[in-house]
Description:
The protein has 171 residues and is α+β, with helices and mostly antiparallel strands.
Amino acid sequence: MFSFPRWLIAFGSQNVKHIPTVTARILCPILTHPRASFAKLPTVHTSSTSCLSPIEFERQSQHTLEYLSSAFEDLSDQFDFGSEFDVSYADGVLTVTFGPPHGTYVLNKQTPNKQIWLSSPKSGPKRYDFDPSTRSWIYLHTRGDLFELLSEEVSAIAKSSVMFRNPLMEP
């Protein structure tokens, strides 16, 4: 049963000429429109979060970062990067300092995302996913390989060819 609000009844003794009306519409037609289509990455660009178990991610990422730590330390025997060159690896974070003007590289594992993140003073930040078909860490936006990028950038710093091999490709 409908009843008038008290404020309207209070004006009942006055000569009210207009009572506002409210029109309600059902919004069902909105639901009948097709859903919006959003851009999708090609199917080959999938996230590693669905293909690696947490244990496998830990194993692959730790193996990769330990290899890179050792490889960077070995570079100091082959090249003179200056007194500021330093390599440190702890708690899943690898920091390689070349000093000015080359800067500092930081690689760390991101367990919730199952990614290795790279912060490069030359190419900027990148997030690498593990690709089981190539057994390598791939930057999904460009399909670039982590080891190839590091080889290219460190070769430019060393002014000589430096090759980081993928330790996961070995039997």
